[in-house]
Specification:
The complex is a heterodimer. By secondary structure, chain A is of the alpha/beta class. Chain A has helices spanning 17-29, 48-51, 53-69, 80-95, 97-106, 123-138, 160-163, 173-180, 204-220, 231-239, 241-244, 257-264, 282-286; strands spanning 2-6, 32-36, 74-76, 119-121, 147-150, 184-185, 225-228, 254-256. The radius of gyration of chain A is 19 Å and the shape is globular. The two termini of chain A are 20 Å apart. By secondary structure, chain B is an alpha/beta fold. In chain B, helix 1 packs parallel to helix 4 (108-126) and helix 2 packs across helix 3. The chains are: A alpha/beta, B alpha/beta.
Chain lengths: 298, 674
C-alpha cells in the first residue's frame, strides 16, 4: 500500500476537522496510508513569516526534518496556508543548500539530514496524481448533476515558483479532477480571488464583501456548489454566507475537494464530515445518484 | 629587417588625455623593425592621412601600424591611405588605443605603458603581414524575395524597377500579407486595401517579377552572388494556366461554413477559393484538409462547375530551382491569438477579440460589412474596452519587447468605433501611450480630444463574463493601484506581434541569425540595419522586429537598394581575410588529413571537399577547401583543425604567436605590484 506523510496543522484539528475527516476517509478508501508526522509543530502561517524569516523557516523546517527522520519523501498538507509555508521553506532551502545544512543542524540533526528531499504536496496535486490509476478506477458514484465552481483562492496557487502551478492566475487542475469524476464545472472569473482570509477577525467587512463577490459570480455562472481546498476559504465562504447574503439570495454549499472526491469514491456524507457545514448540503446530496458502476474508465 | 612605421593618434583628447602619445611614439622607435614613429592630433583627418602617405613613400615603409581607435571605425580609412601611397592595404595594421586603452583607464602612467604594449604586439604581427588581394566572386544578377506582404512587394518592385529580375515567393495563395487584412491605416485613416491592392497587381504583373505564390523556400545553397534556391510549389489542385478566376468552383463548393483565415475566424469560406476577392494571383486553391472530394471521393462539384477544366485533384507539389545573387527575407510576423490569454475570459470568449480581428470587423470587406458588431450575438457594442500590451512588455510571459504598433492601432480602432457608432464608449487600458512617428501624436490627440476616447493608465488583470456582458478587472496605476471593474460589450486585445512560428527554421535554411525572441538579426542595429551577417542576404519588414507600415516600406526600399548596389558591380570583391587550407606540391599535396572537423564547425558552410587526383585521374586523397566566397574569416575552422592545415589570412598562427611573444618578452609590471 502506498504511504504518504500527513501534516494536518492546527486548522484541521479545529475549525476544519471535517476537512481532516474527509482526507483521512478518502485516503483509506483509496488504500493509501497517511502517516502523520510525529510531533509536528505549527507551520508558522499568518504571523511568523511576516515577523521573523528565520523563525518562519525553522518552524516549517522542523516539520520537514521530522518527516525526513521518519523516512518520508512527501507530506500531504491539506491546509493551503500550511502547504504554502512548507513548500516555501523547502524551496528556500533548495535554493540555499548551505542554509539547509545549517537549519538541519540547528534542529538537532543528524547533520546529513537532507531537508530538501521532503516535498509538501497539496490535495489538488495529490488527487491529480491519483486520478489515472487510483481515484479514477475506484470512483463508484458519478458526480452528475453537480455544477461546480472551483475556487482556488490565493495560497494554493501563488507564488508560482513555490506552488509549481503552471497558470497561477488561471488554474484548471480541480476542474480536471471533478470533470473526470462526472461533475460539470463552470467558467467564472473569481477562481483565484482572495477570500479575505487574514482579515477574518480584524476587518470583517472586507471578508463579507469578498465573499459576496465570489458567491455572486459562482451563482451567475450556474454553479450549485463551490469547491475549495483551504480551511480559511471554507470558513469565510461557508460560515459567513448567512452574513453576506441578503434575503432571497440562495445559499451555496461549500465543499472541500476531498469531500467531493470522497462522495465520488462512494463514501457517505457522515464519513466525510458533511453534516457539520453551516450551509446545508442536503439538497445537493439528494441530486446525486447511488453508488454503482465505475465513473471513469481511466 | 621590416621597415615599419608607427603612427600614434591623439584622437583629439580621447587618447591623449590618458595616454602620453609622444611617449608611445618614442618607445615604438625602440621596437625591432620600426623605421619611423610619430604622433599626431587627428590621423583620420586629411593632413593626418597625408602624413602617413608621405612617410610610406619617403621612408620606404613596408608596413604601418596605426595606433588609434577601433579598427571597426577607421581601418578602411587608413588602408585606403596606405593603398594610395602604393602599399598593399593589408599591410596596414590598427592598434586600438582608444576603446581598449584610453577610454577604459584613468591612470596615465599605466595607460601609457599598456598603450606601448599594444603597439608592440601589433608591430610584432605587422612584420608577418602579407600583401593580400581581394577575393573576386562571380555574380548572378537576379534576386529572391521571400514573403509577399507589403515588405516583400515593395522590395520586389523596387528591385525590378532597378532593372533586375526578381523571384517573389509567397507561401499563402495570395500576395498581400497582414496589410491586406487591415481596414484603415494610421495616422491618415486611408483605406489599407485601396493603397495596397494596386501594388499587389503591379507586383503580380511586372515583367521582371516572377511570382511564386503558394510556394515555400525548401533549401538554400551557395553564397553571395551565387545562391541556388529550391522552391516548393505546393499543389493548388487548380491549373493556374487554365483557371480564369471566374469563381464558378467556389460557388458550387458545399463546404460553406469553414472559418475564414483571412477574416481571422470571424467570417466563412469554402474549401476551394481565393482568400479574398482582390487576391493576386486570382486563382483558387483547394484546402485538402476540408475538401469532401479528398476525404470521401464523393463530391467533385467544383470540377463539374469549372468551365475550363482547371480542377486537378491529382496535382502534386513541384520543386523548382532558382539561381539568384541576393536574397531579401521579408517574412513578416504573426500576432498572438487570444487563446494565449487564459486570464481574459479563458481565452475563448467570442466577444474577446484580437486587434487583427477588430480590423476585419471594421473593414468594409469584412464579415460585418464594416459595422462593429460583436461576434456572439451580432449586437453593436455600447462599450468597447481595448487592452493594450496584451503579451508585449511582459517579461513574465517571456516577451520583454514592445510590439510598437499597438498604441497607434488601438487609437485608430477606438476612433473607427466612435466614427461608426457615435453613442459608443471606447475605453483604452494602457501602460502608457507611445506615439513616436510623423503625425502619430497628433493622431492620438485627435482620438482623445476630438473623438472622446477614454484612456486609463492601468494594468489589466482579468476579463470575465457577467450578466451577458464582460467585466474587465484592472488596477488604475495612476491612482496608486486602485482597483477598477469596467463593464464592456466587447473587449479588444492588442496582442503582441510575434515571429512567424517557423522563423527559426527558415533562418537556418538561409544561414542567418536571430535573437532570443526569434526576430532576424541585422549586422548593426544602427549603421547596417538591413544586412544580415551572411553576405548577400537582406532584411525587410517585421521579420526583423515589430514595425509599422511606413517603417516596413522604408526598410524594404533600403533592402532593395542594397541588392541593386550589390548588383552594380561586374563581379564581387570580398575581403581576403579568409581561411586557407594548406597545399603543397606532390608528393605532399596537403597536410590536411581529410577529417572534415572544419566542415562540422563552420557556421557559414564554407568548407568544400576537394579531390586530389594524379595525372591519370586516380584519387589520391580528399582534402578540405575553403570557398572564399562564403568564408567570413571567423577562424573557427583553424581552431578545429587537428592537423594545423588551416590558417586564416591576416591572422596566421605565426602572427598571433609573434604578437603574444612580444607581449611576453616585454618587461610588464604585474598588476597590483605597485
Amino acid at each position: 500500500m502506498d504511504t504518504i506523510g500527513y501534516f494536518p496543522g492546527c486548522s484541521l484539528q479545529g475549525s476544519a476537522f471535517d476537512y481532516d475527516r474527509s482526507v483521512r476517509a478518502l485516503a483509506q478508501q483509496l488504500s493509501i496510508v497517511l502517516r502523520e508526522i510525529p510531533d509536528w509543530v505549527c507551520c508558522g502561517a499568518s504571523s511568523a513569516h511576516a515577523v521573523d524569516r528565520e523563525v518562519a523557516l525553522c518552524l516549517a523546517a522542523d516539520t520537514l526534518a521530522k518527516a525526513r527522520r521518519a523516512g518520508l519523501d512527501e507530506v500531504l498538507v491539506p491546509c493551503a496556508m500550511c502547504f504554502q509555508r512548507l513548500a516555501a521553506a523547502s524551496q528556500e532551502l533548495t535554493e540555499h543548500r548551505s542554509l539547509a545544512g545549517e537549519i538541519a543542524g540547528a534542529l538537532g540533526g543528524p547533520a546529513d539530514l537532507d531537508l530538501t528531499r521532503v516535498k509538501a504536496v497539496n490535495p489538488v496535486e495529490w488527487l491529480v496524481r491519483l486520478l489515472p490509476g487510483t481515484l479514477g478506477t475506484r470512483a463508484r458514484r458519478p458526480l452528475t448533476g453537480l455544477r461546480v465552481a472551483c475556487y482556488y483562492g490565493c495560497l494554493l496557487v501563488r507564488p508560482p515558483k513555490v506552488t509549481r502551478v503552471e497558470e497561477p492566475e488561471a488554474p484548471r487542475q480541480m476542474e480536471g479532477i471533478l470533470k473526470a469524476l462526472g461533475a460539470t464545472t463552470v467558467r467564472w472569473g473569481r477562481a483565484t480571488e482572495c477570500c479575505g482570509a487574514s482579515f477574518s477577525l480584524s476587518r470583517k467587512s472586507v471578508v463579507l464583501r469578498q465573499g459576496l463577490r465570489i458567491w455572486e459570480l459562482a451563482v451567475e455562472a450556474g454553479a450549485n456548489v463551490l469547491c475549495v481546498a483551504c480551511p480559511m476559504c471554507h470558513a469565510n465562504l461557508d460560515m459567513r454566507q448567512s452574513e453576506f447574503l441578503s434575503e432571497g439570495q440562495e445559499a451555496l454549499p461549500v465543499l472541500y475537494l476531498t469531500q467531493l472526491a470522497g462522495l465520488a469514491a462512494g463514501l457517505g456524507p457522515e464519513q466525510l464530515g458533511l453534516g457539520d457545514h453551516f450551509v446545508s448540503v442536503d439538497r445537493l446530496l439528494s441530486t446525486l445518484g447511488p453508488v454503482g458502476r465505475p465513473v471513469t474508465d481511466t | 629587417m621590416a621597415r615599419i612605421g608607427v603612427f600614434v593618434c591623439h584622437c583629439g583628447e580621447n587618447i591623449a588625455r590618458t595616454v602620453d602619445c609622444a611617449g608611445v611614439a618614442a618607445a615604438s622607435l625602440e621596437m625591432p623593425g620600426v623605421a619611423t614613429a610619430v604622433d599626431y592630433r587627428y590621423l583620420c583627418s586629411d593632413p593626418g592621412q597625408a602624413l602617413i602617405r608621405e612617410a610610406i613613400v619617403k621612408v620606404g615603409l613596408a608596413g604601418v601600424v596605426i595606433a588609434s581607435c577601433s579598427p571597426r571605425m577607421h581601418e578602411k580609412t587608413f588602408r585606403r591611405a596606405a593603398e594610395a601611397a602604393g602599399l598593399n592595404p593589408y599591410l596596414c595594421e590598427i592598434a586600438n588605443l582608444r576603446e581598449q586603452c584610453s577610454w577604459v583607464h584613468t591612470d596615465r602612467d599605466q595607460a601609457t605603458r599598456k598603450a606601448i604594449e599594444i603597439v608592440r604586439a601589433h608591430v610584432a604581427r605587422a612584420r608577418y603581414n602579407a600583401p593580400l588581394v581581394p577575393v573576386r566572386v562571380p555574380l548572378t544578377r537576379r534576386a529572391l524575395v521571400v514573403g509577399g506582404g507589403i515588405a516583400g512587394i515593395q522590395a520586389a518592385l523596387d528591385i525590378a524597377e532597378g532593372g533586375v529580375e526578381v523571384v517573389l515567393v509567397e507561401r499563402s495563395p495570395s500576395l498581400g500579407g497582414h496589410m491586406a487584412q487591415l481596414s484603415e491605416t494610421f495616422p491618415t485613416l486611408d483605406c489599407s486595401q485601396c493603397i495596397l491592392t494596386p501594388r499587389m497587381v503591379e507586383a503580380g504583373t511586372h515583367g521582371r517579377i516572377r511570382l511564386e505564390a503558394y510556394s515555400e523556400v525548401e533549401k538554400v545553397e551557395g553564397y553571395v552572388g551565387n545562391f541556388q534556391v529550391s522552391i516548393r510549389r505546393k499543389a493548388r489542385y487548380v491549373d493556374p494556366n487554365r483557371c480564369t478566376g471566374c469563381g464558378a468552383c467556389w460557388q458550387q463548393c458545399p463546404m460553406k461554413k469553414l472559418k475564414s483565415v483571412f477574416d481571422e475566424g470571424l467570417g466563412k469560406r469554402t474549401a476551394i477559393g481565393v482568400p479574398f476577392p482582390q487576391a493576386v494571383p486570382n486563382k483558387p486553391v483547394i484546402d485538402r484538409e476540408n475538401c469532401i472530394q479528398f476525404k470521401t471521393k464523393k463530391c467533385g462539384r467544383c470540377q463539374k462547375a469549372c468551365p475550363v477544366g482547371a480542377i486537378d485533384f491529382d496535382q502534386q507539389d513541384d520543386l523548382v530551382t532558382e539561381q539568384v545573387g541576393a536574397i531579401v527575407a521579408a517574412t513578416g510576423f504573426q500576432v498572438l491569438g487570444k487563446e494565449a490569454f487564459p486570464l481574459y475570459a479563458d481565452g475563448d470568449h467570442p466577444d474577446v477579440i484580437t486587434g487583427l480581428q477588430f480590423e476585419r470587423l471594421a473593414s468594409a470587406s469584412g464579415p460585418t460589412g464594416g459595422e462593429i458588431r460583436r461576434p456572439s450575438d451580432g449586437e453593436i457594442p455600447r462599450t468597447v474596452v481595448f487592452i493594450q500590451c496584451a503579451g508585449s512588455r511582459e517579461p513574465a510571459l517571456g516577451r520583454g519587447y514592445c510590439s510598437k504598433i499597438c498604441c497607434m492601432y488601438t487609437a485608430k480602432h477606438a476612433m473607427l468605433y466612435k466614427h461608426k457608432y457615435h453613442p459608443g464608449r471606447p475605453i483604452v487600458l494602457c501602460m502608457d501611450v507611445r506615439t513616436g512617428g510623423k503625425g502619430y501624436d497628433e493622431f492620438w490627440r485627435r482620438a482623445t480630444e476630438q473623438d472622446g476616447v477614454l484612456y486609463i493608465r492601468s494594468r489589466s488583470a482579468r476579463v470575465y463574463p457577467s450578466g451577458g456582458r464582460l467585466v474587465v478587472q484592472a488596477a488604475d496605476t495612476l491612482l496608486g493601484g486602485e482597483r477598477m471593474e469596467l463593464e464592456a460589450d466587447l473587449v479588444v486585445l492588442a496582442t503582441a506581434m510575434v515571429p512567424q512560428p517557423d522563423a527559426r527554421a527558415l533562418a537556418r535554411k538561409l544561414g542567418i541569425g536571430y535573437d532570443s525572441d526569434g526576430w532576424y538579426s541585422e549586422v548593426h542595429p544602427k549603421l547596417r540595419p538591413v544586412e544580415c551577417a551572411s553576405a548577400g542576404i537582406f532584411l525587410a519588414g517585421a521579420c526583423q522586429g515589430p514595425k509599422d507600415i511606413p517603417e516596413t516600406v522604408a526598410q524594404a526600399s533600403a533592402a532593395a537598394s542594397k541588392v541593386l548596389g550589390l548588383f552594380a558591380a561586374r563581379e564581387l570583391l570580398r575581403e581576403p581575410l579568409v581561411s586557407r587550407v594548406h597545399r603543397a606540391p606532390p608528393p605532399v599535396h596537403s597536410i590536411c588529413g581529410g577529417c572534415f572537423a572544419c566542415e562540422q564547425v563552420c557556421p557559414y558552410r564554407a568548407i568544400e571537399r576537394e579531390e586530389i587526383r594524379d595525372r591519370k585521374g586516380n584519387l589520391i586523397k580528399v582534402v578540405a577547401r575553403v570557398n572564399a566566397g562564403l568564408c567570413q574569416g571567423c577562424g573557427t575552422c583553424v581552431a578545429a583543425c587537428r592537423a594545423k592545415a588551416i590558417d586564416l589570412e591576416g591572422f596566421t598562427d605565426e602572427q598571433i604567436v609573434a604578437a603574444l611573444g612580444a607581449l611576453a618578452e616585454s618587461n610588464v609590471e604585474p598588476a597590483g605590484a605597485r
